[in-house]
Amino acid sequence: MGMNHTITLCRQFLGAAFIGLIFAACGGQGSGTHQTQTDSIATNHPDTPEHLLLVPGRSAGPFALGASDSLLHQRLGKPDFSDAAMGKAVLMWYTDTGSVHPLSVFTSRDMGNDETARIQQIRITSPLFKTDRSLQVGSTLPEISKHYRVQLVETYEEKGQTYSIYDTDAGIAFELDPNDRCIAIIIHKENTDTTSYLPLRPTN
Predict the structure, then answer these.
(1) Beta strands 130-131 and 53-55: pairing type?
(2) For labelling alongside 47, which of 53, 75, 114, 155 has CA 20 to 30 A away?
(3) E-strand spans in the chain?
(4) How far is Cα of residue 134 from the mean position of the Cα atoms in its chain?
(5) Euclidean distance between the first and final Cα of the chain, in Å?
(6) Residue 65 in contact with residue 71, Cβ under 8 Å?
C-alpha cells in the first residue's frame, strides 16, 4: 500500500468518533520521550488512552510540544489550511466532513539556529481528548476552575457572540463559548501565554 493511499485512508476516518483510533493507527505512540512522560498518567487513568490524553505543557495525544512538524505531515497528510510568516506557521486539519472539529498547530523556527519547524501550541476541538483530570471539550468553567487557577486573557466576537480564553501557568488554556462551556483546549508550554502570532482559530 503506497504512502498517498495510506494518508488518504487516515484522513477519511479522522472524524470525531474515530480521531483517537486513527492517531494510533497512523504511526503508533509517538517518541520515546513522550511515552515516558505520559505512561504514569495513562496508567492512573485507564479510561483515557494515551493517544487521546492531553498533558498540559507537554502534548496532545501523539503530538508533543517541541517535536518537528514533520510528524504532523506523516500522520495527518497535507493540512487543509496553512498560513506562514517570519518563520512561524499555523497548520490546520479538519477532522470531519462538516469542518466541526479542526485541529490547529502553531509552529516556529529558531531562524539562524534551528531551521526545523517545531510544535509550539496545539488547539484541540474534539471532545474525545481528555486531561488526566477528565477535562475535555464540553467541560464548564466551574468544572475547569476546580482543577486549575484560570485567568481570562482574551475575548473575541463571532456571529455576535462573545467567546473567552482562560489560560493557566500549567501549559493549558480553555476556550469557552458564551455559556462558559469549553469549545477548544490549547496545549502550550508552561509559564507562557497563548499568543501565537498567527491565529489558531478558523477565520471566515
Answers:
(1) parallel
(2) 75
(3) 53-55, 59-60, 63-64, 81-85, 88-94, 102-110, 114-124, 130-131, 151-158, 161-167, 172-176, 182-187
(4) 16
(5) 37
(6) no
Q: What would the pLDDT profile of 59-89 be if each residue is shown by its tens digit?
A: 999 999 999 999 999 999 999 999 998 899 9
Alpha carbons 75 and 192: distance in angstroms, whole number:
27
How many whole angstroms separate alpha carbon 151 and alpha carbon 12? 38
- Residue type for 178, please? P
SS3 assignment, position 121: strand
Residue the block writes with cell 501523539 = 62
Instruction: Phi first, then psi: give them for residue 53, nearest 5 degrees.
Output: -90, 130
Looking at residue 95, its amino acid is T
